[in-house]
Model the fold of this input.
Amino acid sequence: NAGVTQTPKFQVLKTGQSMTLQCAQDMNHEYMSWYRQDPGMGLRLIHYSVGAGITDQGEVPNGYNVSRSTTEDFPLRLLSAAPSQTSVYFCASSYSTGVLETQYFGPGTRLLVL
Amino acid sequence: AQKITQTQPGMFVQEKEAVTLDCTYDTSDQSYGLFWYKQPSSGEMIFLIYQGSYDEQNATEGRYSLNFQKARKSANLVISASQLGDSAMYFCAMREGQGAQKLVFGQGTRLTINP
Done:
């Protein structure tokens, strides 16, 4: 199993450009989420999905779109990049058995917006 | 109000000593989950341990244990016999409610293990 994979690892954008951060998982997890981590801070939730076709907003959703057409993939779209979106982006997938839970994180994408 | 509070921005510990990283949380939900993650300098988030709000026993995973004090809303991470490789940022996080996979993170504690 590859676990949670993210591409690209690093990206530089100019203000106003758009791009899609890719996230895929091969563990058949229902739940997937996107977080951002700014310097010196913990992660903050951008969007999440509880299954294919179902998405919802997290704490900091403005400027981002998501969709979940398959169980495996959960791309994050930046519509018009701004310097404030410079951050490290983590995708996560998770499962719950009712007793045990865990969230697996991808390696992250470092985004620099100039 | 912050939902997860980690009051120790940094800690320095001698190798082989035990270390406790503090975490307090705030929620009105009866069902919630508490997580600890390790983030080494390479940047990845490594899951360490999970505690459900209904679990009566403290969670343990190898050298990691979670000291869960529900009445005090406290979920401290204890690392026994610290190693140099334990040097990293440590984040406490909470999942509120059931089924929702939304984590709220604290600001983290930077742990440095001295030889």
User: Anything to note?
Assistant: The two ends of chain A are 36 Å apart (CA to CA). Chain A touches chain B through 28 residues (CB under 8 Å). The first strand of chain A starts at residue 4 and ends at 7. DSSP finds no helices and eleven strands in chain A.
